[in-house]
Amino acid sequence: MIAKLRGVLDETGSDWAVIDVAGVGYLVHCSSKTLAALGEVGEGCTVFTDLQVSENDMRLLGFAEAGERDWFRLLTQVQGVGSKVALAILSALSPGELRDACAATDAATVARAQGVGPKLAGRIVNELKDKAGALPGSGLAGASVVTPKGGTVAADAMSALQNLGFKPAVAASAVAHAQGELGEGAGLNELVRVALKRAAG
Fold it and tell me: Which of 44, 60, 111, 190 has the fewest beta carbons under 10 Å from its own?
């Protein structure tokens, strides 16, 4: 089993990256937080991985920290949570936020993730509430790339920049710096305007 890759970030997409390891390109599917933490194309990076094999598919998942991978594995044990849903949850919530939501059986927080309805969110927090304390909640705090805060507005700003052709890592970094300049209460239009200047500069 492939547990970790260390190489050069070769290419990124909305939910994937290609890591070049000694001339071999590995396609890894990632959360938006991991994509932001990987840095710029052409730079060295390390991802912790989980290999999922099904009857029709073989998929490599990548994570900036081992703790995020632990949460992914736990989430996919819940009925109705596949790899795509688990990555959507880890894109919306840091491991710390996810741990706290499960511990408090706060289904509404988990339901913020794309594709997660109230019923599934309730099942996730109920099944994982007793396991939450055993897993790390530090998330990507140690990552070298600053990632945006503030939920929907930041996510919408990142999406807007990506729609304009910027890579996810560039969009995330630009939005994070724009938030630092404007404050977390900034509106979407202002956030996009400042982030766009940053990304284009």
Answer: 44
Q: Rounded to whole angstroms, how far apart are CA atoms 167 and 169? A: 6
pLDDT at position 201 is 66
Tokens of 130: 């007793």
pTM for the model: 0.63
Determine contact, residues 17/32, Cβ cutoff 8 Å. Answer: no
Helices (H), 93-129: 95-103, 107-110, 118-128
Domain 4-63, CATH class in plain words: mainly beta
What are the tens digits of pLDDT across the range 18-38?
Answer: 999 999 999 999 999 899 999
Mean pLDDT of all residues in 105-116: 91
Residue closest to 106 by CA, chosen among 91, 118, 89, 94? 118
State which fold the 66-134 domain adopts: DNA polymerase; domain 1 (1.10.150)
Residue 77 has a CB neighbour count (10 Å cut-off) of 11
Q: Give the Å distances, CA to CA, from 88 to 23, 32, 92, 184, 195.
A: 30, 8, 6, 22, 23
Closest CA to 98 of 74, 117, 115, 82: 74
